[in-house]
Write a structure and sequence with these properties.
Aspartate Aminotransferase, domain 1; binds pyridoxal-5'-phosphate; globular; seven-stranded mixed sheet; alpha/beta; three-stranded antiparallel sheet; Aspartate Aminotransferase, domain 2; about 10% strand
Length: about 375
């Protein structure tokens, strides 16, 4: 049996999305900037996709800039704000994705901004009083805080953060890569200036995403060249990627409540089974509280097989992650788990679910985990 439980890293394409993309690979292949019929047909489809995407988050079509994914969207929000808005102070948290942390740290290292970090509590929630303290004692600030943490699933009270930012005239970016398509997001109600999206996190294609840029903000393009994306992001559009993203988003929002109930059920079931079978188990972050229903980060009981845990699961055909997949393949441990002081000798598994997972797959995973713990000890 093959079980894919790493949906926070990426999700499989929905067959309906593949069908939609295929149309724009094979038939409607024109360059949307071409003025002939082939180009016009693609342009019309692209603009319709933009309108649909915008409607899902209560934005205007002109506020959606398609990008190559979440990383580019995060970088664009940061660099455009710092370059164009005259902002010299930024605040973020130490548990953001590297697509936010690295460009901010780079700007700070070059002396272009002062960078502050908001405090987090012992289970990884942002302390709002720390954010207010920072905002009230600094000049106009750029704030970047993710809506849900991709490693531990903690959810940010984004509306409250939006209210604080409005109080202090701060510019707010939120990395919503893990929450778009899983929660109803209304950019007007949330008071955000920027949000980021990546299509492959909700059964859409990789290499495509978007940045919402509020009409209240006037910034210049990060990537320059042709006048695509209303002069905001040069380069011929990834048409089939964009069409696939729009289709995946339509499908997610059509079935949002059903999807939420099904996936929450899978997560609750996994928590229950892990508790029954592994009495020493610990759930990282706020797993049973303010938490993304697609992500469950688990600290398994102490074992001398900790280092081999993901490998052993992989041998059984079970794909999970030890932290964020973005750092996998390197020896660098998770910067998020490090902030939570998780003991190094306990294996951490992040299970992340999608609509394609089943209870049977979770039972299989539990059985295989039990078998791994029953393996003879490495240390005699
Ligand atoms: C929270 C978050 N932000 C940004 C990204 C980067 O997105 P992409 O890989 O599409 O560039 C990811 C992907 O893992 C993510 O989980």
């Amino acid at each position: 049996m093959n079980v894919y439980l790493d949906n926070a890293a990426t999700t499989p394409l929905d067959p309906e999305v593949i069908k939609e993309m295929n149309l724009y690979m094979v038939e409607a292949f024109g360059n949307p900037s071409s003025t002939h019929g082939f180009g016009r047909k693609t342009r019309a489809a692209l603009e319709l996709a933009r309108r649909r995407v915008a409607q899902h988050i209560n934005a205007e079509p002109g506020e959606i800039i398609f990008t190559s994914g979440g990383t580019e969207a995060d970088n664009m929000a940061i660099l455009c704000s710092i370059n164009d808005l005259g902002i010299k102070h930024a605040v973020t948290s130490k548990i953001e994705h590297h697509a936010v942390l690295h460009p901010l740290e780079d700007l700070a290292a070059k002396g272009e901004i002062k960078l502050s970090y908001v405090e987090i509590d012992e289970i990884g929630h942002i302390k709002l009083d720390s954010l207010e303290e920072i905002l009230s004692t600094n000049e106009r600030t750029f704030v970047s805080l993710m809506h849900a943490n991709n490693e531990i699933g903690n959810l940010l009270p984004l509306k409250k953060v939006g209210e604080l930012c409005a109080k202090y005239d701060a510019v707010l970016h939120s990395d919503t890569v893990q929450t778009i398509a899983h929660y109803a997001l209304d950019v007007k109600e949330l008071g955000v200036h920027f949000i980021s999206c990546a299509g492959h996190k909700f059964h859409g294609p990789k290499g495509v995403g978007f940045l919402f840029v509020s009409d209240r903000i006037k910034v210049h393009p990060m990537i320059q060249g042709g006048g695509q994306e209303r002069n905001m992001r040069a380069g011929t559009e990834n048409v089939y990627g964009i069409m696939g993203l729009a289709k995946a988003l339509d499908m997610a929002y059509e079935d949002l409540e059903e999807h939420k109930a099904y996936l929450s059920g899978l997560k609750d079931y996994m928590i229950k089974r892990l508790r029954e079978e592994f009495p020493g188990v610990h759930f990282n972050g706020d797993a049973e509280g303010e938490s993304l229903y697609t992500v469950l980060s688990v600290c398994l009981p102490k074992t001398d097989k900790a280092e081999m845990m993901l490998f052993n699961l992989d041998i059984e055909g079970i794909a999970t992650s030890g932290g964020s997949a973005c750092s996998s393949g390197s020896d660098i441990g998770s910067h998020v788990l490090a902030e939570l002081n998780i003991p190094e000798d306990r294996p951490v598994c992040r299970f992340s679910f999608s609509k394609f997972n089943t209870i049977e797959e979770l039972d299989y995973t539990i059985e295989k985990l039990k078998a791994i713990y029953a393996l003879p000890s490495v240390i005699a």
